[in-house]
Amino acid sequence: MEKQIAVIRGDGIGPEIVDQALRVLDAVAEKYGHTFTYTDVDMGGIAIDKWGEPLPAAMLDKCLAADSVLLGAVGGPKWDGLPGDKRPEKGLLALRAGMGLYANNRPAKLWPQLAAASPLKPEIVEKGIDFIVVRELIGGVYFGSHTTAECGGEQKATDVMSYAEHEIERIGRIAFETARKRRNKVTSVDKANVLDTSRLWRKVMHRLAEEYPDVEYADMLVDNTAMQIVKAPSQFDVVVTENMFGDILSDEASMITGSIGMIPSSSLGEGSRGLYEPIHGSAPDIAGQNKANPIGTILSAAMMLKYSFDLDEEAAAIEAAVNKALDAGLRTGDMMAEGCTLVSCSEMGDAILKNL
Ligand code: NAD
Ligand code: IPM
Ligand code: MN
User: Fold this and answer.
1) Among residues 9, 62, 78, 141, which is most buried (max CB within 10 A)?
2) What's the 32 CA to ligand 3 centre distance in angstroms?
């Protein structure tokens, strides 16, 4: 199979973790007789420095022309003073919207080897953590108008949150279909006791729940969900929620599995082209030190093989290679535990490659 992959290394630890994922993709290509070619795309802080904007039109075009996109992370203190629409993060939002990627899947699954790295009590962890956050990705407050204006002698800032029924319905459908392939349970998370967008969200989800009578369905308020994720995470299978709630809950969900550095994601719309990225950020505090955990990015590459290219066996081979590295007790600093061996980002890459 021949595939062309747009590669966005981005900022901070982005280049370090993406390089490890590309080594793994190359090894898979060689082993299974595929050809993956890579097109470099500048997005985020590096694009601001080189081109004066976080996502130049030509860069979006390169992503749209590719079979899929692999991303490290963007952002960093260097660009934090810029106005909202000129920041690195704006490039990422424009990319997601420009590619029409409304469905962001963020699996929170405990690798048993990492149980000791979870901050939860062993008796909670033992019950199992295996759920997926299905996050709406191109609507809500992220994409409403953002303004700051003078008002009565002080500044007043406004961010508008809105959702149309069709935006809720399409992400809801993804959640119910995903549940059918898993344990048949959807928890829809909202703030319907306060927000109009959430009341509409709930109405649309209830309509869908009737279409999927075989799937167990529950509503949960977002504040309670944040609490339930640490109290009893085994109750969740598919958690579907709007953009900002999903951003926050997925970081929380990642940590209970041992480290945010482990969690991959897929972002999909209509069609098979997707954007694959770890859920974490550019980790400026450890950037350039070869310390970052590359596994979230490597597993994102595996998700790309599975969901965009239908290469299930190849994806499973990457997961098995990661599993072996964890079995061998190798850990980057973020998930280090007693009795394990601390390795660098590239050493983790070496080990996974060797296991392939
Ligand atoms: P972050 O996820 O970058 O880091 C939070 C903490 O987790 C840090 O202590 C970091 O060292 C650690 N961490 C994250 N990924 C790790 C990994 N792979 N291995 C080891 N440790 C890891 O979040 P932040 O510090 O809030 O944000 C930093 C920058 O990243 C900001 O500019 C933010 O906007 C950006 N960001 C980008 C993305 C993205 O590109 N998708 C996602 C989140 C944040
Ligand atoms: C993520 C990040 C992004 C988001 C930022 C960088 C725009 O936190 O991918 O989780 O909020 O979606
Ligand atoms: Mn986030």
Assistant:
1) 9
2) 34
